[in-house]
Amino acid sequence: MQGITIIALGKLNADYFKKAAAEYQKRLSAFCKLKIIELPEEKMGDEMVDKALEKEAKAILNALPKQCTAVAMCIEGAQMTSEQLAQLFCEKANSGSGDIAFIIGSSHGLAPIVKQAAQLKMSMSKMTFPHQLARVMLLEQVYRAFTINAGVKYHK
């Protein structure tokens, strides 16, 4: 079973985000081994963003599973359709290096070193979303990709 890891900075605070994430985690259990790693978001003032991002980067890189395809979720990344994400899952699963780790940064984004370490940079949209909502959106798209590959009628 393919392993999917989501490394996210910060916790889900709002109950509605927690419930939505829990629902997709439950649904995904039929398709993959899902692991969510929550790392603490560094406290910072605007003048200390770079130092905080460096600290977060160390934690992210230490949390990355070995032998995975790392995907940095960032605005400058490529946008994919749900079908393209499903195809990526198939390609990785068939290549023998099937595990994928998605990295969601803090509200200040990701340090350049994390983006450089990733094999793929992906953007959900040109719009900006709160990182808690981005986690729920990513979980939904991961679920959708697996249902596409399984031929389940969730995707329309």
Please, could you describe this protein's structure?
The protein is α/β, with parallel strands linked by helices and 156 residues long. 44% of the residues lie in helices and 22% in strands. The protein has one domain: SPOUT methyltransferase, trefoil knot domain (Alpha/beta knot), CATH 3.40.1280. It has 5 helices and 5 strands. A 5-stranded parallel β-sheet has the order 2-1-4-3-5, with helices on both faces. Strand 1, helix 1 and strand 2 form a beta-alpha-beta unit. Helix 1 packs parallel to helix 5 and helix 3 crosses helix 5. It starts with a strand and ends in a 6-residue tail after the last helix. 29% of the residues are buried.
Put the structure in a nutshell.
By secondary structure, the protein is of the alpha/beta class. The protein has helices spanning 15-28, 49-63, 82-95, 112-117, 131-150; strands at residues 3-9, 33-39, 69-79, 100-104, 120-123. The chain has a single domain (3-43, 50-149), classed as SPOUT methyltransferase, trefoil knot domain (Alpha/beta knot), CATH 3.40.1280.10.
